Amino acid sequence: MHRRVFLSSLAAGIAAVPVSGFLRAQSGIPAKLPADLPVTLSKHIPRYRGFNIQWERRAGDNTKPAFQESDFAMMQEWGFNFARLPLSYWIWGKPTDWTYINDEPLGEIDRALDLGKEYAVHVNLNFHRLPGYCINGRELEPVDLFTGHKDEAARALKAACFHWAHFAHRYKSVPSSQLSFDLINEPPKMRSYEGYFEERYVEVVRALVGAIRGEDPHRLIFADGINIGQNPVLDLANLNLVQSTRGYQPKAISHHGATWVPLDEYETMKTPVWPLTDDKGQLWDRAKLKQEYVDKWKPLTDLGVQVHVGEWGCYNQTPHEVALAWMSDCLAVWREAGWGNALWNLRGNFGVLDSGRKDVNYEDSKGHKIDRKMLELLRTA
Fold first, then answer.
1. Most CB contacts within 10 A, which of 35, 286, 336, 366?
2. To 10 degrees, the CA torsion angle through 90, 354, 274, 80?
3. What is the C-alpha separation between 334 and 50, in angstroms, rounded?
4. Burial of 57 (0-12, 13-18, 19+ CB in 10 A)
5. DSSP 353
6. Residues ≥6 apart with Cβ < 8 Å to 154
7. 3-class DSSP assignment, residue 264
8. Domains present along the chain, CATH in parentheses
9. Measured between alpha carbons, how far is 168 from 23 in angstroms, rounded to an integer?
C-alpha cells in the first residue's frame, strides 16, 4: 500500500469499537523504557528507531483490529523501540463538522498504547490529516489551514487545536516515555523558505502546542520541519520540541516508479544507481546526503534541539541492491549525527515485510515475507 492509498483508506476507519480501558489500568512501565520524560528533557530523548505502522481497520469490519500485536512483538524481537502511527481525524471526526469527535474508534489507539507498553515500544501519534490540511488530498478539506481566507484558516486552526486538546486530555496519564505527539505531517512545500508561509506554520505550531500543554504540560511533542519536513524551523527552537525531518532524497532513488509523485520532483528519470548523478550533473553520494539531511539542520541542533527522521524509505520499484546501498549511506549519516529514524513502513511496498519486490529472495516467517538483508541493515545501524 503506498501513501496515497493509505491516506484514502483512513477515511474508512470510523467503525466503532469497544474502549480497551487502557486509561483505567495503568501499572508501571517496561524496564527497557526510561522513567517519564518531562518537556524539559525533550533535548535528551533516546535514539528512537523503528517504523511507521498504518491504521488497518475498515468501516464495518469488526473482526480485525486497527493495529496488529504481531507488529509490536516483532519490533521488540528485532531490537526496535519506536512506532509512529499516522492518523487521520476522519477516523474519529467529520470534515463536515469539526466540533464532532466519536471516542469509540480511539479505543483502537488505546490498544496500540497497551501494546507499546507491553513490548517496550514508544508510540508516536501523528496527525497525517488534521482539520484543514493533509499533504495528500489536500483539496478534500473544506478550507485550507495554510492558504485559506484568514477567517476560514482561523476556523481550521481552532478545530485542529480542539482535536489535539482532546487527545492531550484523553492520554494525560500516559507518560512521555511511552507516548509522544507529532503535530502535523509534512507542512506544505513553499515557494520560498522565508516569508508568510513559514510565519503561518510557526503560528500554527505554537497554537497546537499551547492547546496540548494546556491539558498536559509534560507531553513530549514532535513538529515536522517546513517544506514537507525537509527544512528546520529556528523559530520553534524555544518550545522544547523535537523536530522531525524526512529521508526521501533523492526522489530518483526513494520513489523511482512511484506514479503519485509529480515528475518535476525527480532529479532524473534514469534507471537508479547509487551513487547517482542527476540531470544537472550533481553527484548524489553519502557526502551529498550529509549535506542535505544533516548539515542544513546544524543551526537548529547547535541550539540543542533534537532531530528525528519521522519517515524515510525506498519504494519497491528501485532495484534492491541500489536501495540497500542508498539506505546504508542514509543510516550512516544519521547514526553519526545521533538521530533516530522510522522507516515508512513496516509492512508494505517501502517496508521490510511483504514489500512485493521482484528481485528479493524473501524469507518466509510467521505468515510474512521478510526482506532479511534490509532488516539486518536497519538493525545494525
1. 286
2. 70
3. 14
4. buried
5. B
6. none
7. helix
8. 3-13+43-380 (3.20.20.80)
9. 12
Residue 88 CB: number of other CB atoms within 10 A? Answer: 25
Q: 249 vs 158, 193, 277, 313, 333, CA distance in Å?
A: 34, 18, 13, 10, 13
**Taking the CB of residue 27, how many other CB atoms lie within 10 A of it?**
5
* Amino acid symbol at 135: I
Per-residue pLDDT reduced to its tens digit, 137-172: 999 999 999 999 999 999 999 999 999 999 999 999
DSSP at 89: G
* Of 310, 346, 284, 381, the residue nearest 124 (C-alpha): 310
- Name the 3-class secondary structure at 257: coil
Q: What is the pTM of this model?
A: 0.89
Positive or negative torsion for Cα 34, 39, 40, 43:
positive
For 91-116, write each residue's pLDDT tens digit.
Answer: 999 999 999 999 999 999 999 999 99
Residue 334's SS3 state is helix
Q: What SS3 state is found at 18?
A: coil
Name residues whose C-beta falls within 8 Å of residue 292's C-beta, 6 or more positions apart in sequence.
249
